[in-house]
Specification:
alpha/beta; Rossmann fold; UDP-N-acetylmuramoyl-L-alanine:D-glutamate ligase; Protein-Tyrosine Phosphatase, Chain A; six-stranded mixed sheet; 22% strand; globular
Length: 453
């Protein structure tokens, strides 16, 4: 990608934008990094960027920023419908996402995973599986490591395992993985995208450029993903935990298997998986199928499935106190993800939920709360709506506790009331931005508090 002497505007001073600005500068571009926030409101030391000669512009973003710009790189958090980008489009200035920027830099094939839930677990597991065949494996994207940095680090002769969000796909045109997967599609990020149709369209962009030499993995059990096959020009395989398939990855005789070209490969028994819960069976099936198509042997896949213990912030065991176990599921930023966490336990849950409310329907979530939750402790902006809806579902008022905007208060209340065989579960069903910078900060704060009890 030739950026020498080009003027590049990077919008959004978060991890992806900062990485893109550094790389573009190192490739010889004149770089401006702009963020609508003031510098003091961003938790980052910009000294290195200033030292590299990157021009930093904070605060109000006017059309003057577009003067002489040859390329705009957009961070995932920045919607493409902001006025500055609309003006850029009117001026025919190319706009790409950081993911597309990374794709242009990549010299190794990409295995890309999207979906509403399960992405991080699947991609983390996939990275470990790919290490069984490839000496250079990069894991990045929405998982926390900017893909542009990872792509450059891996270079040629390796492979990339990439987590992709709907935000990252908004400003892509040519992004083309060799193997892509869509795990599921349920309501999420509707405030940003406006409708389920637009949200799904963003997810489907992950395979839009794939051809007959490429692969798409779909969840047969999810109605929205099952029918995507009609829009794919590449080879499609399904995974399913509910049905035995003619081809793909599925459960047979309580074991995970892959069947391709008439040959069946047994991976491991369901109860041998290092990660628990039916949602993780789906994640394991998807990751295994991707790895198998990338050339990893079935026996190598089996060993990794048995040893992998999951990722931080996803039903993560923290500590046991007085016979009560504490679990951190801060990554449950929507109701569907929280439902999967509730389904992991037989019942007797003291649930800490709430946060930055996405406004999604709570019916299915609260139906399960009624079945499995003994006490509901609510925090953050969503507390009032969650309480009202829970009462409408006849959840006992005396078993709803409010902790305001204090995680310490929530944990304190949970510890006071919980008795064996109850478990204490942080599974917010909400984003974190009303109290924290991201779900990782929320989860680590919860763990800190629990470990200090």
């Amino acid at each position: 990608m030739d950026l020498a002497n080009k003027k590049v505007l990077v919008i959004g001073a978060a991890r992806s934008g900062i990485a893109a600005a550094k790389i573009a500068k190192n490739f010889g571009a004149f770089v401006i990094l702009s963020d609508a926030k003031q510098e003091e409101d961003i938790n980052f030391d910009f000294a290195e960027l200033r030292g590299l000669g990157v021009e930093l512009r904070f605060g109000k973003q006017t059309e003057e920023l577009l003067s002489g710009v040859d390329l705009i790189i957009v961070s995932p958090a920045v919607p493409i419908k902001i006025p500055l980008l609309k003006a850029a489009k009117a001026k025919n200035i190319p706009i790409i996402s950081e993911v597309e920027f990374a794709y242009n830099l990549a010299k190794s094939p990409i295995c890309a995973v999207t979906g509403t839930n399960g992405k991080t677990t699947t991609v983390t597991l996939l990275g470990l599986l790919l290490e069984e065949k490839f000496s250079k494996v990069g894991v990045g994207g929405n998982i926390g490591f900017p893909l542009s940095e990872v792509a450059l680090e891996v270079g040629a002769g390796g492979i990339l395992a990439v987590e992709i969000s709907s935000y990252q796909m908004e400003a892509t045109k040519n992004f083309k993985p060799h193997i892509s997967a869509i795990l599921n599609i349920t309501p999420d990020h509707l405030k940003r995208h406006g409708s389920m149709e637009v949200y799904q369209a963003m997810k489907e962009k992950i395979f839009a450029q794939e051809t007959a030499e490429d692969f798409l993995i779909l969840n047969y059990d999810d109605e929205r993903t099952r029918e995507i096959i009609d829009r794919a020009a590449c080879k499609v395989f399904y995974f399913s935990r509910q049905l035995e398939l003619a081809e793909g990855a599925f459960i047979k005789n309580n074991s995970l298997v892959i069947k391709i070209n008439g040959e069946t490969h047994k991976l491991c028994a369901v109860d041998e998986l290092g990660i628990k819960g039916w949602h993780n069976v789906e994640n394991a099936l998807a990751a295994s199928l991707i790895a198998f198509l990338a050339g990893v042997a079935a026996e190598k896949i089996s060993a990794v499935l048995k040893s992998f213990q999951g990722v931080e912030h996803r039903i993560e065991f923290v500590r046991e106190i007085d016979g009560v176990k504490y679990y951190n599921d801060s990554k449950a930023t929507n109701t569907d993800s929280a439902i999967k966490a509730l389904e992991t336990f037989a019942g007797h849950i003291v649930l800490i939920a709430g946060g930055d409310d996405k406004g999604t329907d709570l019916t299915e979530f609260l139906n399960l709360v009624n079945e499995r939750v003994d006490y509901l402790i609510l925090v953050g902006d969503a507390a009032a709506r969650f309480k009202t809806c829970a009462l409408d579902k006849n959840f006992p008022a005396e078993k709803i506790l409010e902790a305001g905007y204090s995680m310490e208060r929530a944990v304190e209340l949970a510890k006071k009331i919980a008795r064996p065989p109850q478990v204490i579960l942080l599974s917010p069903a909400c984003a974190s931005f009303d109290m924290y910078s991201d779900f990782e900060e929320r989860g680590r704060d919860f763990k800190r508090i629990v470990k200090e009890l």
